[in-house]
Structures are given as structure tokens and as C-alpha cells.
Amino acid sequence: MPVSDRALVAYERPDGRYVLHYAHWGASDGLVERLTPATPFGGADPRAEWAAGLLRDLLTATGIDPDSVAGRVPAEAATAVDPMPLAVAVTRDGLVDRVAFGVHRALVVVDRSFDATTYAAVPFDLAPVAGTLDGTAVDPDAGGLLVPVATSVTSLRERAGGAREALGAAVDGGLDPPTARRALRETAARWVGADRLLVADGPGP
Fold first, then answer.
1. Name one Pfam family in it (predicted).
2. Torsion over CA: 18, 24, 29, 35 (sign)
3. Core vs surface per residue 152-175: b (16+ CB within 10 A) or e
């Protein structure tokens, strides 16, 4: 399966922290519309009361019991979001650190009212688009930006991809990578406003 649609989905808890889940196709347009209080994991059956009950308990959990969670998911269940959580009680600031840039392509944040915001994941590492950096895959540890999506996550990812390609060419032309990284951040800030970006700085300079 292609990896381009992998995403993380975070559900807000009453204490302001988040329960974090994985969605293999979560970075594609259409997931948000499937997430409702009755179908919190994007299942097709609104009568699937197990899903709402499971999420309700996870929203106050202090740990994960994989056997207990698995025992509550029907064998025939088909959901867009994996009901098995990756983590519970993640802070808002800690969400960005859970994103593996180059692997996860989006983060979907679902608030207590079930309003969802999708963030496109834009890696700082320009190695795949700059020949002089001699790399073929994004280094997840290099960090990146989470850019809120207004309408289409696919369109925003294409726009960000174009910006990365242009900066990769600039690096090949002599621009130093730290400057290119700052330029990428400034470009995204012009799109949505600097205060709306979530940033994972990574270990870079």
C-alpha cells in the first residue's frame, strides 16, 4: 500500500490532553466528515455503539490495556481510524513530536465538540528534492511543520511540495540548508499565519 496517506488522529480529552490513534488513509480528503460522536473512528455503521463507548473510556484512561481494547472491537469492524490507541494523555504541545515527518502526512485534531482540524505535515528535510544533499528519503528526526488545512489537504500538500521543490533547487544553487528551512517556515506562515503553525524543530541548527 502507498504510504502517502498515513496520518495521526488526536481526540481531545476532558483534561485538555489527547488520545492518539493511527489512520492509514487519514491524510486524504474525506476523513473528517466520517468522524462523528456516533462513529468516532470513522466506521460506516452509526449503530456501532462499541466505538463511542470505547472512545469515551479512552478519554479518561491513564494507560493502554491492548487486550482490553482489542476485546471491545468486533471482528467485523471496519473503521478509518485504528481503534487501538498509540498513546493516551498526550499534551497539545506534545502532538507535533509524535509526527514522523516523511512517514505521517497529516495530523487530524478532534476537539470535544467533534470539530476536526487537519494539519498537513511538511518536512524540513530537503534531501529528497536537493541533489547536493545526497538523500532519497526524508529524515523524520529533522522535524517539520504542521500546517492547518482550510479546504483540501491534497491541495495544500501539493502546494507545500512545490515550495519544497523550489527550495531544493535553491539549495542545489548554493543556498545553505538552514536558510532554506527558515524560508519554508516563512512561506507556510504567509499561507496561514505564523501563530497557526505547529512546529517540530528537530536537532538542526
1. DUF6735
2. negative
3. ebbebbebbeebbeebbebbeeeb
